[in-house]
Amino acid sequence: MKIRFVLSIVLVCLGLVAAILPQRQNSSMELDAKQLLNEIQLENYMISVDEMANALINNDPEYQLIDVRSEEAFKAYSLPGALNIPFEKLFDEAWAPYIDQVARKNVFYSNGTTLASEVWMLTRQKGFKNNYILRGGLNNWYATVLDPKEPVATDGEEAFFDYRARLGMKQFFTGEGTPASTSNVKAKKPVPRRKKKMVAGGCS
Amino acid sequence: MGPIIPLFEISEEINLLIAFLIGLGFGFALEQAGFSSSRKLAGMFYGYDITVLKVFFTAAITAMLGLLFMNYLGMIDMSIVYVNEYFMSSAIVGGVIMGAGFIIGGFCPGTSVCAAAIGKIDAMYFIGGSLIGILLFGQTYPLWEHLHNAQQLGSLKLSDTLGLPDGLLGLIVIVAAVGMFWIGEMAEKRFKREDISKEI
Amino acid sequence: MEMKGNKYMNPYLAGLMLGIVLLASFYLTGRGLGASGAMKSVVVSGVSTVSSEYAKNSHFYSKYLGGEYSPMKTWLVLEVLGVLIGGFISGAISGRLKFKLEKSPKITGRKRIWLAIIGGALFGFGSQLGRGCTSGAALSGMAVMSLAGYVTMMAIFGTAFALAYFFRKNWI
Asked: What CATH number matches the domain at A37-175, 1.10.530.10, 3.40.250.10, 3.30.450.40, 3.30.1380.10?
């Protein structure tokens, strides 16, 4: 008798709390703020312009450049082989197979790094992997690859080495006439979404 | 974050070991509650012993509240947890047949296993009957296949169907259960059967 | 040792214990409890042993065959094995281990056995049609607020209450 009374009160109180608490939807894939902070501090989500340029020269299929600027900006100028996913369309279902995948390294870029960083944070928070940022964005790309500054004599030997390599890159990206063409921008089709692992249950 | 085994892709062997351990707890709780006695179970329907109501609803509510709070605290991803698929007609027709089986046989499958474990002979025959029933269903499956698969409505939740938040529905279920406990205990006094309660 | 008439655990506490087991099952494995599914596994593997060709051609049996594991090495079978042993341990602790045919003194043992077989058969049949029994569909389903769980629960208990009058002589 007494147990029923106590249990009833406890259950109703807990039920009231449960009813007052806001609805919440957890996703096991998502990262919390602390984990995200850790990753940001590690800074290994950055890809340098040199690394990217080398990858492009070598036609490395591991890298997928993703332009997160607007469509107009993308049409005006873009890096070779880049895919345009404008910021506001980031979480469109159609793009999900490109940003939530495990096969390639996605390299986000914008003019500076602000927009690309925002995109990276959003995707990382969702738990998507293999996403990176082009360090310094297009501005840095232009300054480093397309218009490298000759080092002064006091700079180390390494600087000269880099400079020579960059001249070669410049030759590659400008010498062949079309530094960045939009001709290879194909309208990508949506791909069926991969599903989360589901559990069986009940009595079947 | 849970559920642990599907999320961390733990091996099937561990999963089966966990199944066994959970079964141990399940069987122990059922037997301690007195679900190993058919006359105790049947008491539910004649009012002299409403243990079934008390145990069943306390368990369902405990787990429900636990899941609600775990979800709120970010301890479980409810999108992975299995929600029974709803096939309207087969759920109702199947439930009606099971209800008839319950009042005639005095057990349900889980309780019959638990009762057989402590030597209840009626429970052993009940298990034998269940196997016959399942075999019968399997042998005549083409007759029921349509009914079995008709009106598939997917993994529907009652809260979504009613358009209520999960927490509020939980509170409603709790209030209803508390009311039933109270009425049930009054019924236990009114339909008291000392002769039966003494034996079971 | 325990007082007479109070030999079982308090039902609310037993319910709490059962609820915690159920919650642990959801937290660890993402699924609830079950019982009839294990019995189905027994039937499926039995039929498959008698004639595997026949079982593979049946729309019903074939659903549970051909997986990576045999139908006897599944989650529910192991869980029900646990129920068997857990029940035994509990019975041993509380001194309830005894072969006994439990029935109302008003009916014969033979009648009780027939009722148990018929009731079992109905429950077995119904659990296949309704995709789960009291534990798999009703109890586990209610904990996750599944509509199927509540409908099955009401159908089972509603029918049992409705028919209780007609079978009262067997019980009281």
From this structure: 3.40.250.10
Residue C110 lies in a domain: yes
Is C127 part of a structural domain of the chain?
yes
Tens-place pLDDT, residues C92-133: 999 899 899 998 888 999 999 999 999 999 999 999 999 988
What angle, rounded to 10 degrees, do the helices at A114-125 and A33-42 form? 130
In angstroms, rounded to a whole number, what is the distance separating the alpha carbons of residues C172 and B107? Answer: 16
The whole-model pTM stands at 0.77
Question: Are B76 and A18 inside 8 Å of each other by CB?
Answer: no
What's the pLDDT at A175? 67
Residues 9-38 of C with CB under 8 A from B: 9, 11-12, 14-36
CB contact under 8 A, C32 and A201: yes
Residues of the domain holding C148: 104-172
Q: Is residue C15 in a domain?
A: no
From the candidates C76, C122, C166, which should be mutated to test the interface with B, based on the most B CB atoms within 10 A? C122
Tell whether A198 lies on the interface with B, counting CB pairs under 8 A: yes
**To the nearest whole angstrom, how far is the Cα of A18 from the nearest Cα of chain C?**
14
% of chain B residues with pLDDT over 70: 100
- A4 chain-C contacts, CB cut-off 8 A: 12
Q: Pick the residue from chain A with its C-alpha nearest to B183.
A: A4
Question: Token pair for residue C32?
Answer: 């609830």
Which positions in chain C touch A200 (Cβ < 8 Å)?
31, 75
User: Could you report the per-residue pLDDT of C29-72, keeping only the tens digit for each?
Assistant: 988 898 888 999 999 989 988 888 888 888 888 888 866 667 78
Tell me which of A177-181, B89-93, B188-192, C61-65 is least confident: A177-181
Q: What's the token pair of residue A124?
A: 């990382």
Phi first, then psi: give them for residue C41, nearest 5 degrees.
-60, -40
Q: CA–CA separation, C80 vs C135, rounded Å?
A: 11
Lowest model confidence (mean pLDDT) among A25-29, B178-182, C150-154: A25-29
C172 in a structural domain: yes
Across C3-41, b (16+ Cβ under 10 Å) vs e yields: eeeeebbbbbbbbbbbbbbbbbbbbbbbbbbbbbbbbbb
Q: Where are the domains of chain A?
A: 37-175
- Is residue B19 scored above 90 in pLDDT? yes
